[in-house]
Structures are given as structure tokens and as C-alpha cells.
Design brief:
The chain is an alpha+beta fold. Strands 1-2 form a two-stranded antiparallel sheet. The longest helix is centred in the last third of the chain and has 45 residues. The termini are far apart. It is elongated and about 70 Å long.
Length: 96
């Protein structure tokens, strides 16, 4: 059963946006707060930059962090699998 799409109002850079998403409302609000904070930080760092450029830079920063997190996750998964195989092997040798 698919989750129901519920409208949620969030504020980003002083603009209220009405979004429809299957993401739980509280989670969507947290995500919007993070985006808002990133945009505000970049606006302060680059006050003369057009908003579109600031938004693109924020998107690139968030995408980079997401990719790094995914890479870290896959690396940890690989390490867990390797260690699990080593432990299973030690158990099998010990039982023999």
C-alpha cells in the first residue's frame, strides 16, 4: 500500500511553500529547515551572488554530502561482510 501524499507548508528563505509528499510531515519540515539553513549560509558567504547560483551551490554541496554518505555506507557494509566471513571461518575451523 502506497503512502498517502499529504500537503505540508514549509518556509525557505522567507517563502512559504506548500509541498505534497509521501515523506512524513515532520521529516519534510526538518529537510526544509536544513535546506533553508544551507541557503542562508551561502547567501551570507556570497552576498552578491544571484539566488539561482546560491541554490545551485547548495544543491551541489548537499549532493556531494549524500554521495560521501553513500560511499561510507557501502564501505562499512563491505567491512562488516568481510569481518563476518572471517568470524564464520574461525568458528568453522574451531568446530572441526
Amino acid at each position: 500500500m502506497a503512502a498517502e501524499s499529504v500537503p505540508v507548508v514549509v518556509e525557505i528563505l522567507g517563502r512559504s511553500l506548500r509541498l505534497k509528499s509521501t515523506i512524513p510531515a515532520e521529516r519534510l519540515k526538518i529537510v526544509a529547515q536544513e535546506v533553508n539553513e544551507r541557503l542562508r549560509q551561502l547567501q551570507q558567504a556570497f552576498p552578491a551572488a544571484p539566488l539561482a547560483d546560491v541554490a545551485i551551490l547548495a544543491a551541489l554541496n548537499l549532493a556531494c554530502e549524500s554521495m560521501e554518505s553513500k560511499e561510507d555506507y557501502h564501505q562499512l557494509q563491505s567491512e562488516i561482510q568481510q569481518r563476518s566471513r572471517q568470524l564464520i571461518h574461525k568458528l568453522e575451523v574451531h568446530e572441526s
